[in-house]
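Protocol step 4 of 6: record predicted structures for both targets in the notebook before any analysis. Target 1:
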Amino acid sequence: MKIKKLIITTLLLVVTIVPLFAQQNGNLQLTLKEAKEYAIKNSPLIKNANIDLASAKQKIWETTSIGLPQVNGKLAGSYQLTVPENIKSFSSLSNLGSWMYVADQSLFDLTGNGSNFGHIAKPTPTEPASDADLKWGLTFDVTVSQLIFSGAYIVGLQTSKTFKQLSEVSITKSEYDLIESVTNAYFLCVIAQENKQVLDSIYKSTEKILYEIQETQKVGFLEETDVDQMQLTLTNIQNTRDMINRQCEVALNLLKYQMGMDLTKQIELKDKTSDLISQLNPDVVSTKKLIVENQIDYRLLSVQEQMAKLNVKLQKSTFLPDVAAYYNHQENFNKKSFSFTPPDVLGLSVNVPIFGSGQKIAKVKQANLSLLKIQNGKEQLSMGLQVQYSDSHSAFMTAMSKFQTNKTARDLSSRIYDKAIIRYKEGMISSLELSQAQNQYLQAQSNYFNTIIEMSTAYSKLEKLIK
């Protein structure tokens, strides 16, 4: 029992530590599906598209808040270096109540109790305002406003929601484009790596043959020309290997760039060409047809058309009046100062456009022309998508047919090359004939890989069209 527990504990540690060790060393193994998922999460292109969507949501609230109550406060202070005489005169009117009371009492005494005088109440004595009191002022204003009606506000609210929809469609389009790019880059990387493996194998076998014929030539059984021919063949293979190595590095960096990954990070591609080819299902592209209205570019243009229509409505709304209500309260902290401003004001404002010399009409016509251009573009895009679907479908079917032919040719040339090596070792063919068989095999291998790329590119375009 103790041994079993020890084995289980050891296995758990291995399962836990190995992934952590691989992660610490920066190694990451990815299938094509995992590469797509990584790109969707980490690509700056998708991140920026999501930021645009978040900005569009905030724009909706910004536009909505325009039609909600607005409250503003203002604190204002002032100090007059010299008090004008007219302000002093107005300030002296504060003693008018006392004068009127004295006059009223005097007239009452003269006319008697039955007269109309003697009814003014005695005012509370007030100190006269000094120049120092009149020089300073401190007020606080609170204004509450509410938009009652505005055509531009209503259309603006609709436009902000449509802009959010545009951002959502843009995210979907960015994801489709990114998946297509990552798929093509992944295919390119895998093919470059497998092509490198083929060249490495040929290089080793050719290097071995060169060594054998060099030893044979030393004892005089072969001419020096055969050695030179094989040396030239080996050199050409080495040059091709160097070129493929550089292509592998470029392809991997391109894939990392598309995925939003650090270029210094080491990755390993788990899928092989056979795995990738099995994912190119011809039944999918044959059974699913193009629906133009569902195609992402057409949907994007449809939303732009909707925004253009709203722009026409916006320009037309400028002919309508704007109605708003407001309330203002002012608190004067210097009670001895003189002010004509009432403490509380309630008002209603109506802004009516009367005459604009045709400017608004010109803007409406421009908006209609912009809308017409987008509608013409939609019609052209519809026809272009159908042509693109037909071309991509034809390219995919052609590439599939070529793939089968080139696969057969590659297998045949591989067998021919293997037999040529045996016959060369037996002295039945020359080194030149061996080089020809080798070049034939390399060309067939290249045609085979190129056809896979053609198939993948056409399939990716078809897949994006019929989504």
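Target 2:
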Amino acid sequence: MPKVSPELLSILRCPVTGSPLEQDGEELVSTAAAASGEKIRYAIQDGIPLLLPPELLAAANAAASDRHDGPRRA
């Protein structure tokens, strides 16, 4: 399980709510709920917290997979 250092965790904030983050397994979780009423979860990938709001993370993942599909032929 990737562990975020306490020093880094002490300065990280949720980009949506501005609240501090807590580590929960392989994710970071906002300590305050978003407008939807739910706490936002952020993945940790290769030891790096991915602090993109969920809707932007989905778009970033889709763009990355398009780049890795190789050249497209007409």
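Step 5 preliminary note on target 2. The radius of gyration is 15 Å. The helical segments are 6-11, 54-67.
Proceed to step 6 after PI sign-off.
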